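Key result, reporting period 2: structure in, sequence out.
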């Protein structure tokens, strides 16, 4: 009977440890998440030349629960060139990655979109329908990074850049739910270790 109880105890202890390990792995897998505007990075929107508020200036907003960014260039109707920037400071060394799509109703070369690194412009698209998956940019902490939409004459329709699956080094943090999983996994593992440490040794008294 004692041997039977010991077998059951071993099974329960191993199951508890397995559950704790699973929770810990799950929690760690969830700590790397996409970051977008107004999340763990702070982007600043500027129009150059200065655009009067409400006069079809450039804009930026998040959609899909904050997982996607929609960045729209200015469209003042002035007939003059204009630039809209969305910039942030890189929080760590590594690689920025993102997916993107670009849409505009204007003719090719009228609206141009790209990303900026330390003030240098890298073109992504200059016509409707441009897209990319897994775009990567090597960055260093403290550098300026962002997106730019250039309007040739500020007439017709603006360019619209949609960014998703955005991540940057040093910007991802555990969500509240993930943090709870970390704590739960640690507690379960500790409980399992305690059970293994304090489990009485099986006795063979009465057995020949």
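The corresponding designed sequence is given below.
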């Amino acid at each position: 009977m004692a041997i039977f109880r010991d077998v059951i105890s071993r099974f329960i202890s191993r199951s508890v440890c397995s559950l704790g390990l699973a929770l810990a792995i799950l929690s760690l897998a969830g700590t790397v998440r996409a970051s977008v505007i107004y999340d763990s990075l702070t982007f600043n929107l500027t129009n150059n030349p200065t655009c009067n508020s409400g006069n079809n200036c450039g804009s930026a907003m998040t959609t899909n629960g904050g997982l996607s960014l929609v960045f729209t260039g200015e469209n003042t109707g002035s007939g003059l060139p204009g630039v809209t920037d969305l910039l942030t400071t890189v929080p760590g060394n590594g690689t920025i990655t993102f997916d993107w799509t670009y849409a505009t109703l204007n003719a090719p070369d009228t609206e141009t979109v790209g990303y900026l690194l330390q003030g240098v412009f890298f073109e992504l698209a200059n016509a409707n329908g441009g897209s990319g998956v897994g775009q990567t940019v090597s960055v260093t902490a403290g550098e300026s990074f962002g997106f730019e939409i250039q309007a040739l004459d500020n007439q017709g329709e603006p360019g619209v850049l949609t960014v998703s699956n955005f991540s940057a080094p040093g910007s991802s943090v555990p969500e509240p739910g993930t943090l709870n999983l970390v704590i739960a996994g640690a507690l379960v593992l500790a409980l399992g270790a305690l059970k293994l440490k304090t489990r009485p040794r099986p006795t063979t008294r009465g057995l020949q």
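Residues 39 and 96 are 15 Å apart (CA to CA). The beta strands are 44-48, 59-63, 68-72, 82-89, 94-103, 111-117, 120-125, 131-139, 144-151, 160-167. This case is discussed further under Risks and Mitigation.
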